[in-house]
Design goal:
Blueprint: H1 19-23, H2 25-34, H3 41-50, H4 53-102, H5 106-195
Helix pairs in contact: 2-4
Region (Disordered): 32-67
Biased composition (Low complexity): 46-58
Length: 196
């Protein structure tokens, strides 16, 4: 029976062999020893010339029957151990599922670490953006404050000028009045001095 005709699926090559398989290792070895090994090319030519064609056909038939016996033996062993292999595989899968549910599975831990690293990098980027945003706001606040203070200082200067102007104009008016009074008084004295 060839591999295409076999009813058994291809098994996982990493699957651990059951303990019972080790007990039958000797039987398998015997069956492999019974299988006639092919001769090197030069010896095959000598053997064919020495033996008649019937011997070559018999050897060929023996090899075919030994190969068929070997395949049948392997399939029988697979049938014998199939249940054990599948139960071991099922136990391994159940153990893996339990470790996934507990969060101790290596893939889960690796993905958690990767997710945690991504969250940390996202948080650091968000923090940097937040600090940059605050720095920009503070810079804008300082420039606006400087502009406001500059405008306020201009207004204060204008108010001070206006106040000084009014004060000077008032003082000038007072001085002008004094002068005019003094002039009027001086003129009166002169006029009174002339007539006296």
């Amino acid at each position: 029976m060839s591999n295409e005709e076999s009813s058994w699926p291809i098994l996982d090559p990493l699957l651990k062999k059951p303990e019972l398989y080790k007990d039958k290792a000797g039987l398998k070895q015997k069956s492999l020893l019974n299988y006639p090994m092919p001769l090197p090319d030069d010896q095959v030519g000598e053997e064919l010339t020495n033996n008649n064609s019937n011997t070559a056909e018999e050897t060929s038939n023996e090899k075919k029957s030994a190969a068929d016996d070997l395949i049948k033996e392997i399939e029988d062993e697979l049938e014998f151990y199939r249940y054990d292999i599948y139960t071991e595989k099922l136990k391994a899968l159940e153990k893996e599922l339990a470790s996934i549910e507990e969060g101790t599975h290596k893939d889960v831990v690796a993905s958690d670490k990767k997710a945690l690293g991504k969250v940390k990098s996202d948080m650091s980027q968000a923090e940097e953006q937040y600090l940059l945003y605050i720095e920009t706001i503070e810079r804008n606040f300082e420039t606006q404050k400087a502009e406001i203070m500059k405008d306020h200082q201009k207004e204060l200067d204008l108010v001070n000028r206006a106040v000084n102007f009014k004060r000077h104009s008032y003082l000038d008016q007072q001085n002008n009045r004094k002068r005019t009074r003094q002039q009027i008084e001086a003129e009166r004295r002169e006029v009174n001095g002339i007539y006296n």
